[in-house]
Amino acid sequence: QVQLQQWGAGLLKPSETLSLTCAVYGGSFSDYYWSWIRQPPGKGLEWIGEINHSGSTNYNPSLKSRVTISVDSSKNQFSLKLSSVTAADSAVYYCARAVAAAGTDWGQGTLVTVSS
Amino acid sequence: QAGLTQPPSVSKGLRQTATLTCTGNSNNVGNQGAAWLQQHQGHPPKLLSYRDNNRPSGISERFSASRSGNTASLTITGLQPEDEADYYCSAWDSSLSAWVFGGGTKLTVL
Q: How close A39 gets to chain B, by Cα (Å)?
C-alpha cells in the first residue's frame, strides 16, 4: 500500500515562492506519474502538474509560467515550487499518485495561506 | 478552472439511487475516459473509479461508472448517509496535455 507524506511552509507573503515536498512510501516509484493538485477553500480541485521518475513533466497551462516540479528518485520524493504567489494561490495543496488522470493515492494535504 | 461540467448539486433519499454526470468533449472524456473521486469535508479525495469503470480494491460495488460519448456517469445505489459528499470527475485532455477536473457535485442524502 503506497503512502504519500507531504510537507512545506504553510504561510507565505505575496511574491514569495511556495515550496512543498512529497515523499512516497511503498509501491513502485518508477511506474507512475506523480501529481500536485490544489483546492482553494470551499472550491473545486485544480491540477497543477505532474512528473515521472525520470523527470518528464506536464504542467497546467494556466500555471506553467510559475510552476516547477522536480523529482529525487533516489529518495522517492518529488517537489513543487510556485513562484510569485498571491492570495489567489491560497489553497490546500495535495500530492497524489496518478494513473490515467486519476489520483489513486493522495497525501494528507497542506494548507497554504498567502497573506501580507 | 473546471474543464468538465458537473451539476452543482444532487439530492436523493436514503436507499435510493443517484446518478451523477460529467460532460466533457472528444479530447478528454470522449477520448480518454473519466475518473470519479469522492471527497468528504476536510479530507483528501478518494478514488472511486478510473478509465470509465475500473473500481479500485475496497470500493463498494454500490459505486459504478459508465460513459456514453462525451458524458461520464457515476451511479450510486442504495444511498447511505456516509455517501453524502462532494464528487469530482477528472480526465486527461489530449489537446491541452493536461489533467482536467469537473467543478464537483455536492450529493445530499435526505
A: 10
